[in-house]
Design a protein that fits this description.
This protein is mainly β. It has three helices and 13 strands. The strands form two sheets. An eleven-stranded antiparallel beta sheet has the order 1-2-3-4-5-6-7-8-9-12-13. Strands 10-11 form a two-stranded antiparallel ribbon. The longest helix is centred in the first third of the chain and has 7 residues.
């Protein structure tokens, strides 16, 4: 549970431009309720085969209390998610695998649609004393609010220079969930962008989940002393629907969002 108290905000333009009365948007308290629950099975091996997975539930509810009006608590989000990993070990150096994951997001907000996604990652792994190599591909499909099929690489390589140094490179991507908890981590006073209705209430705009089509990293890991590790790296990301670039307005001017 999180509670934030802050100074009410009001701009005269909000009344003159859209007819929103000052007392309707002055907010001085915000309360978040958070709950998570999950159960996981570590990889279970039967001969050369292995299987593991996880099921989880996540709940987030946000309420705002105005000086003049009752609280607005419609910003509620529920998530069900799960993943399973299947593997087959060919020998001591080579293995195949398939990772499957799914997520269902639902909202109390009337204007929001359910946001569901499914991801499959087939991959091949090779390792010896010098090299660790992971070659895979991400196949992503979203349903509900946004019906999209996307693809991204999933390649990771590490070369052991010696006992105290490793060089690594990765080219990957995949889904980043733009849920309410993510917005709260960016700023506790977030609100979805939107537009005002004739009655002065603000209607929020739903934001699709972020998908990284390319996430490249190159770096080196140094271990000069036992217990001391230095990691130097650089990279480049190419993303769609990045939340940091979305228009999240202060909640003080959208008390009636939802």
């Amino acid at each position: 549970s999180q509670v934030f108290t802050y100074q009410p905000y009001y701009s005269p333009n909000d009344y003159y431009m859209v007819g929103v009365k000052p007392e309707a948007i002055q907010t001085d308290k915000q309360h978040n309720w958070l709950f998570d629950m999950s159960a996981a099975v570590t990889p279970y091996h039967v001969g050369n085969f292995s299987v593991g997975g996880k099921l989880g539930y996540s709940f987030f509810k946000q309420a705002y209390f105005s000086n003049k009006y009752d609280s607005n608590d419609k910003n509620q989000e529920v998530q069900f998610f799960g993943n399973i990993g299947l593997g087959y070990k060919i020998d001591e150096q080579n293995a195949f695998g398939l990772d499957l994951s799914a997520r269902c997001m639902s909202y109390q907000i009337d204007e929001f649609d359910t946001n569901n996604s499914f991801t499959a990652v087939p991959h091949f792994d090779f390792s010896n004393d010098k090299i660790n190599l992971h070659l895979g591909a991400i196949i992503y499909r979203s349903f509900g609010y946004q019906n999209k099929t996307r693809f991204a690489p999933d390649i990771h390589a590490t070369y052991h220079l010696g006992e105290n140094a490793d060089v690594f490179a990765s080219i990957s991507g995949g889904e980043v969930v733009n849920d309410f908890r993510h917005f709260t981590q960016m700023s506790p006073y977030w609100a979805l962008s939107g537009y005002y209705l004739q009655n002065g209430y603000m209607k929020g705009t739903q934001l699709a989940n972020q998908f990284d089509t390319f996430r490249g990293t190159l770096g080196i890991i140094l271990k000069p002393l036992d217990g001391l590790t230095a990691k130097l790296y650089g990279g480049y990301d190419a993303s769609k629907n990045r939340a940091e670039l979305a228009y999240l307005v202060p909640m003080s001017i959208s008390i009636n969002n939802g």
